[in-house]
Design a protein that fits this description.
Blueprint (H helix, E strand, L loop, with lengths): L2 H16 L9 H14 L3 H8 L2 H21 L9 H26 L5 H11 L18 H36 L8 H18 L2 H23 L5 H20 L7 H16 L10 H32 L3 H11 L1 H10 L7 H9 L5 H13 L2 H32 L8
Length: 422
């Protein structure tokens, strides 16, 4: 087992013993683990860089993301898009693509020498929403209950929907970089046959159609079996918890079989949607009972803790390597106008008022999905491009901790409650 994994597990173990004392501050967990990660690798930053740029680290973070995406999909209550179907559909089908376009455009202005495919990877890395670094926002009574519900459902969906775009853009960016960096003297028809073939294969394999089919088949099939088994008292809540933990691993594993070579993230996410819809069909409850969600939630939280620990080391790595001003500006734009403007435009002429549109746009913290996507991109891309993606990711997530985890709750707590919010 790599020493990074062992050290990370030891750090999480120690943090788990004292975390309860800091639960009232939702941001304490990410900050504490981030600092632990930075302190742990300060003695040998270069070794840490090599450790996260390895195949085994790539597989670890991939499995973590598969579990988190599945958990996000199963926790939504209501139909496919929850109780606020029209609003959520606008956010994930209009605002999110518009944010991607604006982010790529901003990258063209700030990083003109970087290819469009790499900029698309950057957009996919820094746009997913995660309330782990700002959990207190979803409990803040100064945010209307409806908006909290919208934000919660959106955060459960946008990382899953962006993962196929990330998979395709990363696969294509890697192959295109190989072609671009090939010396002109070596460019011949025979020399390009391999990269071009890989380019086409990467595109075909990254298209999520096969992964969607795998996810639907596994999710709906297993969800139906669990519903029947629970209704006939064949299985109990404990058995259902085990099923929910194993299912995303199976979905990811099946999608990764060479004969399919599909996007495992998409398969796990779609399996979560299919499982939830089939498991709750015909029930009075709109969502899966918490007694069945408990295990996958806790394992997901534990896995996320490891990701936050790794972010601490990545932060130290990019700081020692140097951060240009445009990277910080890119992060600031990603956390503000690159989300606020698309959200506001997408919700025009909807049931969401002008003030609430701005609030939804402003409250978009970044977290685990961004970290995992950033690590995968750093692992797969050539060194220079990988460092760019990693640095922007670190700046964005750390900036989100400061903005959404610390500043936003303080500002909201100063607001007066104009009416009783339930």
């Amino acid at each position: 087992m790599p020493h990074l994994v062992l050290i990370g597990l030891a750090a999480i173990l120690l943090w788990s013993l004292i975390a309860h004392r800091f639960e009232r501050w939702g941001v304490a967990g990410p900050i504490g683990l981030l600092l632990l990660g930075a302190v742990t690798v300060v003695w040998d930053v270069d070794s840490f860089g090599s450790a996260i740029d390895s195949p085994i680290s790539e597989k670890i973070v991939e499995v973590i993301l598969a579990i988190l995406l599945f958990a996000d999909a199963t926790e939504v209550k209501g139909g496919i898009f929850g109780r606020e179907g029209r609003v959520i559909a606008r956010l994930v089908l209009i605002a999110l693509p518009l944010s991607i376009v604006l982010t790529v455009a901003a990258g063209v202005l700030l990083i003109p020498d970087t290819g469009l495919l790499v900029l698309l990877v950057v957009a996919c890395v820094i746009l997913p929403i995660d309330f782990a670094p700002a959990a207190s926002l979803l409990r803040n009574r100064r945010i209307p209950a409806r908006l909290r519900q919208i934000l919660n459902v959106e955060s459960g969906y946008n990382d899953g929907l962006i993962s196929p775009v990330f998979g395709m853009s990363l696969a294509l960016a890697v192959i295109w970089s190989t072609i671009v960096h090939t010396p002109e003297s070596d460019i011949t028809e025979d020399a390009l046959d391999g990269p071009v073939t890989q380019f086409l294969e990467a595109f075909v394999n990254a298209v999520p159609a096969i992964a969607v089919v795998i996810g639907i088949a596994l999710g709906t099939g297993i969800g139906y079996l669990v519903r029947i088994a629970r209704a006939r008292l064949i299985a109990d809540a404990l058995g259902a918890r085990y099923v929910m933990l194993i299912l995303p691993l199976i979905a990811y594993g099946v999608a990764s079989i060479p004969v399919f070579n599909a996007n495992g993230f998409v398969a796990a996410f779609v399996a979560g949607i299919g499982y939830r819809l089939t498991r709750t069909r015909g029930h009075r409850s709109e969502g899966i009972d918490h007694s069945e969600l408990l295990l996958v939630e806790e394992v997901g939280a534990l896995a996320a803790n490891f990701v936050w620990f790794v972010l601490g080391g990545a932060m130290l790595l990019v700081v020692t390597s140097g951060i240009d001003w445009w990277m910080l500006l890119f992060a600031v734009l990603a956390l503000t106008v690159l989300r606020v403007i698309p959200v506001y435009l997408s919700l025009m002429r909807s049931s969401v008022g002008r003030r609430d549109r701005l609030l939804i746009g402003a409250l978009g913290p970044r977290g685990t999905a961004s970290i995992v996507f950033g690590l995968l991109a750093y692992n797969a891309l050539p060194e220079d491009e990988g460092v760019i993606v990693l640095t922007i990711m670190v700046a964005t997530v750390v900036g989100s901790i400061l903005l959404h985890g610390l500043a936003a709750p303080l500002l909201l707590n100063r607001r007066k409650l104009d009416e009783e919010i339930v």
